[in-house]
Write a structure and sequence with these properties.
Elements: H1 2-18, E1 21-23, E2 27-32, E3 37-40, E4 47-50, E5 53-62, E6 80-86, E7 94-97, E8 122-126, E9 129-133, E10 141-145, E11 160-162, E12 168-175, E13 181-189, E14 197-201, E15 212-220, E16 226-236, E17 239-249, E18 257-258, E19 271-275, E20 281-287, E21 293-299, E22 310-313, E23 322-328, E24 334-340, E25 349-355, E26 360-361
Parallel strand pairs: 1-22
Antiparallel strand pairs: 1-26, 2-25, 3-5, 4-5, 5-6, 6-7, 8-9, 9-10, 11-12, 12-13, 13-14, 15-16, 16-17, 17-18, 19-20, 20-21, 21-22, 23-24, 24-25
Length: about 350
């Protein structure tokens, strides 16, 4: 009997150690929802914060059930880009229709350098263009063209680090040489956005038939090093698969190498990367396999290794969720924003989870 009990105890302990840890005291709030609408993809636009003031962009389209199993959004009705703003650390939100896309077809020329030291600055990178705001996103200038570095197109989402009054390093992706997505890269301006130079490719170009590396999420480790989480897709043993990979640059973005032990198989969703303190990072991401939801991992060594997976929420009704972005509040709590739906909801909403990554159940 004693041997049996010891065996069961050992089995239970080993099983428990493989489980995800549940985050405690998570507060889930609705940023935007409307019956009959599909609100989605915050990671396509970006998130910015100035203390407890938070701004995030998203798509607002018409909900339509996709009989082929894709995204449940109507492609025959117009979608608009909106932005949501919170002044109280994500507790409550107001919805604004962004004005930067009203003249999307009219490209402008940047003739004066942007002052990146402005405390109210915000940059938005979208495709092969960039927009600037000097008033916390209340108004936007642009679009201004970005170089494509010899590729058919640029596939930018917003991911950048301000490094001086005239210097910004951005992390994006370009199409492959055959025009498909995509290969991630690092680029930089040192003259206030007037020109941009290619610093380095983050990984080799994926296979032309199928495979991509897109949507970097990046932090600076020190004055010379970056860590970037890349959304990947490709064929493994002949089957299409989707995952996250971690890459590190020790030389300011010129060269990169993969941290091979830190691959996360989440079935297709970008990550968001946030610094807690000098050595602690938080990575949050959507999971498009049951149980569907938002999860996260912590690193105490600047992304060299990652701990047990944390469950932020796991009550989603399908795979069509995620694309999170996260900011840290002045009180140390995180605000993670994503698109989502739960059982019985025939629409998609923008949600936010306010949570403490250090307060979890094991």
């Amino acid at each position: 009997m004693r041997i049996l009990l010891l065996t069961l105890t050992c089995a239970l302990t080993c099983f428990t150690a493989t489980l995800s840890a549940q985050t405690r005291d998570v507060k889930n709030v609705v940023v935007f929802e409307q019956e009959g609408r599909f609100a989605g993809w915050p990671a396509n636009f970006g998130i910015w914060n100035w203390g407890n003031e938070i701004l995030v962009g998203f798509t607002d389209g018409a909900y339509l059930k996709n009989p082929k199993g894709g995204h449940d959004i109507s492609r025959d009705e117009p979608s608009v880009t909106r932005q949501a703003r919170s002044l109280d650390g994500g507790e409550t939100w107001t919805i604004e229709e962004k004005n930067w896309l009203h003249n999307q077809d009219e490209m402008h020329e940047l003739t004066e350098p942007v002052d990146f030291s402005n405390p109210d600055i915000a940059l938005n990178l979208k495709g092969d263009r960039i927009y600037y705001s000097v008033d916390r996103g209340k108004s936007w200038a642009g679009p201004y063209a970005l170089p494509t570095f010899g590729r058919p197109s640029l596939l930018s989402r917003t991911d950048y680090i301000i490094e001086g009054p005239r210097q910004v390093t951005a992390f994006t992706a370009a199409s492959k040489e055959n025009g498909r997505e995509g290969q991630p890269l690092c680029m930089r301006t040192t003259d206030g956005g007037l020109t941009w130079d290619l610093v380095g490719w983050i990984m080799e170009e994926p296979p032309q038939d199928y495979g991509y590396g897109i949507m970097p999420a990046t932090v600076a480790l020190n004055d010379n090093a970056y860590l970037s989480i890349i959304r990947r897709g490709g064929r493994i043993d002949g089957d299409k698969q989707w995952w996250l990979e971690t890459f590190l640059s020790p030389d300011k973005g010129k060269s990169w190498y993969e941290l091979k032990d830190e691959t996360i198989n989440n079935s297709g969703n970008p990550a968001t990367l946030t610094r807690l303190d000098e050595s602690t990072l938080v990575m949050a991401y959507g999971v498009r396999q049951a149980p569907y939801g938002i999860r996260a991992k912590l690193s105490n060594d600047n992304g060299q290794t990652w701990g047990r997976e944390l469950i932020v929420r796991d009550d989603a009704a399908s795979w069509d969720i995620g694309y999170p972005r996260t900011v840290k509040r002045p009180d140390g709590k995180l605000v993670t924003i994503y698109y989502y739906h739960t059982e019985g909801q025939a629409f998609r909403f923008i949600g936010a989870s306010i949570w403490d990554p250090m307060n979890v159940w094991y």
